[in-house]
Each structure stands twice: as C-alpha cells, then as structure tokens.
Design a protein that fits this description.
Residues 27-155 form the YbaK/aminoacyl-tRNA synthetase-associated domain. This is PrdX deacylase domain-containing protein 1. It comes from Patella caerulea (Rayed Mediterranean limpet). The chain is globular, with a radius of gyration of 15 Å. The chain has 169 residues and is an alpha/beta fold. Strands 1, 2, 3, 4, 5, 6, 7 and 8 form an eight-stranded mixed β-sheet that branches. It has helices at 8-17, 33-40, 73-80, 91-98, 149-159, and strands at 23-26, 46-54, 60-66, 87-88, 118-123, 134-136, 143-147, 164-166.
Amino acid sequence: MSGQQIGREGLLGKLIDLDITADTIDHPEVFTVEEAVPHVAHLDGMFAKNLFMKDKKKKLWLLCAPHDANVKLNDLCKMVKASGSLRFADESVLLEKLGLRQGAVTLFGLINDTNKDVTLILDSRFTENVYPKIYFHPMVNSATTGITSEDLKKFIKHTGHDPIIVKLD
C-alpha cells in the first residue's frame, strides 16, 4: 500500500477533476448485489457486480460485469488464462490493494492500485454504450454512483489499467 488511500470524497473529487459526470445516491449499507438492487432498481442503467479474486499463483483479478451476468468462475478462469482456479481474495488483500472492504468492492477501487497489482476483467457491455449509466459503489457500500461507458473508459485509462474485455452471458 502506497501512501494515503482515496475514499468516497476523494474519489468523487477525482471524477470531477477528470470531467466525469457522476450521479451518486445514498442508501442503507448493502453487502450483496441482491441487497443493493431494490435501492437502485429505479435508476436508468445497470448496477455492476464486482468480484475481487485471486488465482493459484496469487495473481489478483477484479471482475466487473452487469449484476445479472451469469459468471462461471471456471469458464472465466479459462477466458483470462488465470493460473489454476479463481477464488475470492481475502478482505485484508482487498483493503491493502484497493482500499475497500467486503461488500463495497468496486471498479473505482482501482484508483488506489497505483502498483497495478490487480488485473481488471471487464464485461464488453460496459465498454459498448449498452446502458445509459453503469452503477458502482463509490468506495463505500452505503451509496451508488453512476457514470457512462465513455466516462468509465476515461476513469480506467486514468488509473493506468489495461482491462481484459470478456463476453459473459
């Protein structure tokens, strides 16, 4: 972990600095996609499912996909050529690398991955303007922030990550 990690306010400030229009709503803390959906169902767009994982060689992966995507970890492992199998990484690693807690996993955490230790796996629908907005937690699981596909690409470019684009069902 290098320096002070960016939290919600720092993230939202950085989005403004990057000229990214973000809509944020507050809601009760949620720990699963199923818990979040009732609070975001009225929003025009797609809520993201974010999975922080490691493979057999301890390489770190962050999957971002539509919340209703059918993610089969064995198939995903083959798609991205991960070593062995993919399984969820420990919360201590999540906190160290992305500055996040379980239940608040978000693509926005890449802003804290200055060493590029995490490989981003992104569902192709998130790069193809399929949804008016894509919604992620803004570093905490008590709010949701929406941005466009174009702004998502701008944010990822700013973090210096080169995503692996996959097509999930």
